[in-house]
Amino acid sequence: MPIDIEKSRREGMRWYLLVAMNRAEPLGCADAMLKTIMDDIYGDVTPSELHQQLSYLEKRKMVEITKKPDGHWHGRCTALGIDIVDYTVECRAGIARPTKYWS
Fold first, then answer.
1. Is the confidence at residue 1, as pLDDT, over 80?
2. What is the second-level CATH architecture of the domain 5-85?
3. Alpha carbon distance 19, 1 (integer Å)
4. In this structure, what DSSP letter does residue 54 have?
């Protein structure tokens, strides 16, 4: 079965965005910082691609996004987003959370 690279990229990016915003609690992260982190992982993330994945996480109620008048976004994890990163709740499809191998 062939690997869907685009799907893998989207779902992986969602996981890393949650982890980054969780680490930035209680302040959250600006999209410029998140883009820098995603660029380090994926190499060529566009602002539009970043905003698409943030919007997905917001629709799933895992992050809260504040859209600034200058076009930049600021994100924070919700309680659900923190629980996903902390492995205290199940993670539905759409986010490439690694399998928990420790107890």
1. no
2. Orthogonal Bundle (1.10)
3. 29
4. H
Structure confidence by residue, pLDDT tens digits, 15-28: 999 999 999 999 99
73-77 and 29-30: which strand pairing? antiparallel
CA distance 48 to 91: 25
**Helices 5-23 and 47-59, packing angle to 10 deg:** 70
Kindly give the residue spans of alpha helices, DSSP state H, lying in the chain: 5-23, 31-42, 47-59, 79-85
> What is the residue extent of each domain of the chain?
5-85
d(CA 102, CA 55): 31
